[in-house]
Amino acid sequence: MNSTPLDLKHQSRKRQFGSFLGKIITHIILWSSSLLALFPIYFMISASFKSRANFLANPIGLPLPPQLISYGLAFARGPVLRWFLNSSIITVGTLLISVFFSCLAAYAIAKMQFFGKNSMLKLLIALMILPPVVLIVPLFILMTNIHLINTYWSAIIMYLGILLPFSIYLLSSFFRTISDELIEAAYIDGCTTFQILWKIMVPLSINAILTLVVVNMVWVWNELIIALVFLQSDEVRTIMGGLTLLKGRYFVNEPMVLAAGTIAALPMILVYLFGQRYLVRGLTAGSIK
After folding, report:
1. CA distance readout (Å), 253 to 83, 189, 234, 238, 250
2. What pLDDT, in 10s, does the model give residues 49-83?
3. How far apart are CA 182 and CA 216, in angstroms?
4. Dist. CA 186–CA 38, nearest whole Å
5. Most CB atoms closer than 10 Å: which of 140, 153, 197, 225?
6. Which helix (H) or strand (E) holds 266?
7. Measured between alpha carbons, how far is residue 197 from residues 124, 160, 169 in Å?
8. Rounded CA gap, 200 and 197, in Å?
9. d(Cα 277, Cα 275) in Å, to the nearest integer?
10. Model confidence pLDDT, tens digit, residues 99-116
11. Long-range interactions of 181-188: CB distance < 8 A, separation 24+
């Protein structure tokens, strides 16, 4: 039975209404998810600009008027700037070393032929699923024996062991997408292996490398367990480890702790805001041949 023009028009309106309703539901879900994700950040920042009395009277509301008393108490309670500097040193040091060695290893796995390459790649994948917490006790004993407890190197070495498998796997996946003909042409022009890596592979892989930097930076900066175990002195304690010292045994000044938390979270928020366009681009680039 043929459909009349009236029936076709009615079906078209039903499809348009269904599409419009689907878009509304999708936007409601997206906005709700965004608000749920942003609410903890709003709560932390707004509470940090309140006194404790104002916080207890109105925990969720805006800080009217804004007060800096909680920030002053946080700086008076502990060496927050020193903790911040320690976190910066450890994070930057870990990133520089991990990116350097990851590029070398990833290039070898992706573009060079040697015995045991596939086995090495499988071992790296296996190491990625190893929980870091199972390594803490034996490595703590090792660091104690070689006198590296309460030094930057103890945390940096731990972080390198955790980050390198993922970093090498990600970069090697991206390096495989770069044409072998380009590398062969560079060899013909007289380039050495290191020149090909640093002048061709790295510039072409900048999105993947920046993605790696953002992901690793956020993880190292926010890491707590290793920082608590291996960095027990205020001279080397990180900002995340220092936050655990700002509460008393029977009393917690919530705005003061949230003020210190805002100081600790601000660098990573800025890193994500400036690096988010590279994040998705870098994570998906290696999946396309």
Report:
1. 19, 66, 21, 20, 10
2. 998 888 888 888 888 888 889 899 889 888 999 99
3. 29
4. 48
5. 197
6. helix 254-285
7. 21, 21, 16
8. 6
9. 6
10. 999 999 888 888 888 787
11. 183/111
